[in-house]
Amino acid sequence: MTFWLTVTGMLAVTFGSRYAGLALRTELPAFWVRFLHFVPIAVFAALLTPSLQGSYGEGEIRVAGAGVAALVAWRTRNLGLAIAAGMLTFWLLRLVTP
Amino acid sequence: MAGLEGFRRGFVAMAPLWLGVVPFGVVYAVLAREAGLSLLETQSLSVLVFAGSAQVSAVGLFGAGAAAAEIVFTTFLLNVRHVLYGLSLGRRIPLRGWRRPTAAYFLTDEAFGVTVVSHERTFPFLLGAELSLFLVWNLSTLGGAVAGAAIADPGALGIDLVFPLAFLALLVPLVRTRVELGVAVASGALAYALAERLPGGLPILVTGVAGSLLGAALTRGRPGDAVRLDDAAREVA
User: Fold this and answer.
1) Are residues B144 and B185 in the same domain?
2) What ipTM does the predicted assembly reach?
3) Same domain for B73 and B180?
4) What is the pLDDT of residues B147-203, one digit of tens each?
5) B112 and B224 part of one domain
6) Do residues B184 and B138 share a domain?
7) In chain A, what's the furthest Cα-to-Cα distance?
8) Which of A7, B21, B95, B143 has its CA 20 to 30 A from that of B179?
9) Angle between the N-to-C axes of helices B39-48 and B123-149, in degrees from 0 to 180, rounded to the nearest 10
10) Alpha carbon of residue B20 to chain centroid
């Protein structure tokens, strides 16, 4: 039940944002245009760090996998490739560490 | 019919971006299943919300046991940028009656970018580009959701590492200037510190607002318009 309530809220704020721009005839203040530019950067970074360590005591090799994923993402800008490289690194390190 | 021809051109203009959308849709669906969402719930988000970053964040928050209000407000933060695209498109393409809510429902970064770049500013072209992405996004969601269900024991494989890896791979291409790097590092550090003290999705919400305020304050004096066009071009690239 909570799930569908959440989805209804997500639908409302998303459609509201998409519709408001098409219906309005104004300019957004420059400060808030710049604010919006930084939202995905701040949110993705905030989602990243608390979930990186994990809860199975494999923090070091998880971080190593993330390092490889970051490098691949930076070079290729390819989401699927970056995740695959990170997971492969993690699994390989898991095999060789006791 | 001129309308159908425009629709077809819009649909095809989006095709080069399918290559980037498919892995994103699959990753979203695998994460959603990993967070405990059913096939129906996973697909519903793609049909009803249709916003990749917000969907990926939401399933991460669902998994962390965040409250509904936290998930909705984070979604708002991530999607309110569409106001900018609407403002820009509304001035270029006259939309009357049912066309306005329809164009709004399916509006994405990619459809905005492709339409602005194409110089073919008509409703059929815009709708073609929009539905092209909607179709591929939902098909890749379905594919990923079915494949995700086939993973036998996700816990033993350490599949939950896909979450931070996905956020990292989404973040890295966005960071191109020193201010952007500073905001990313500061936000990551703040969220890490807050995660031990605050429950559920609150650290992400607080950090999302604080990090964006920091970025806006540090880029004072730069015109907002340049940032906006820059963003759309980046999404399309």
Assistant:
1) no
2) 0.88
3) no
4) 877 765 666 778 788 889 988 998 999 999 999 999 999 999 999 999 988 877 888
5) no
6) no
7) 63
8) B21
9) 170
10) 12
Amino acid occupying residue B219: T
Is A43–B86 a contact, with Cβ atoms under 8 angstroms apart? no
Residue A42, in any domain of the structure: no
Q: Collapse the DSSP code of B163 into the 3-class scheme (helix H, G, I; strand E, B; otherwise coil) and give the result.
A: helix
Does any CB of chain A come closer than 8 Å to the CB of residue B192? Answer: yes
Q: Are A50 and B116 in contact (CB under 8 A)?
A: no
Domain that holds residue B171: 158-236
According to the model, what pLDDT value does residue A51 have? 87
Helices (H), B35-161: 39-48, 52-63, 68-79, 82-92, 99-105, 109-118, 123-149, 154-157
Q: Pull the structure tokens for residue A56.
A: 């199975």
Q: How many Cβ atoms are within 10 Å of B21's Cβ, its own excluded?
A: 21
In a domain, A57, yes or no: yes
Same domain as B146, residue B208: no
The residues of chain B scoring below 50 in pLDDT are 225-226, 229, 233-237
Contact B26 A80 (CB under 8 A): yes
Scanning the structure block, which residue is given the tokens 């309110």? Answer: B80
